[in-house]
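Quarterly update from the structural biology core.
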Amino acid sequence: MTPKQYYRRFVSFYGIIWGALFSAPVVAAFFPPVLSAALFPPLGPGQFVIVAKLVVLIFGVAGTMIVYFAKDFSPLSAKGSRWGVLLGATVFSLVMFCVYGALWFRFVRIIDLGEGNDPDVISVGYERSAYANQNFPRETDWEMFKARLRTEEQINTLFTPTSVAASRAALFLAYALFWLAAVIMSSLPVLFTLRDEEDRKKARAVADKLLSASAPRD
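Predicted structure, tokenized:
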């Protein structure tokens, strides 16, 4: 099995799933704010988001390469255990999706700006600053931000910068691990399909050789 044969098999149903996952961080920018933030978490300044998306895309390519270079690893080559590996990748992907979802609901705020306006979606920290505790002791996060600019400076004024950085790092890590596991999960059936085809070709070649050897000779 060559890399060319492997990657050509991505032109398939499972390859479409992989393609949808791979493109999610890129196409997220073209969707409405809330859906965009669900496809890729709001991580602050635009430059940082671009770098984070590039890292995730590299993870996507790396996931397919991990599957390819592990093709001769016994759990992947043996038919009896390969689906257990797929199940494990699926379970890990679901677990990380749940972790990402929990972090998203904990740290992402959707600020409604009124009828006719798209909402703002931002990420905040886990700890309010002394300034926020003193001046807005009873306001919710949504109330604090609704009447104020949702800039990075404002976010770091109302929440401690350390907690903002930590919450965004946690969001990114959970998203990246979920995404990597999902990419591996969608790449495994591609490998299994190609390996089954190779096994059938080898079996036919052996059968043809045996028939040729047993055929009567003049």
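The radius of gyration is 25 Å.
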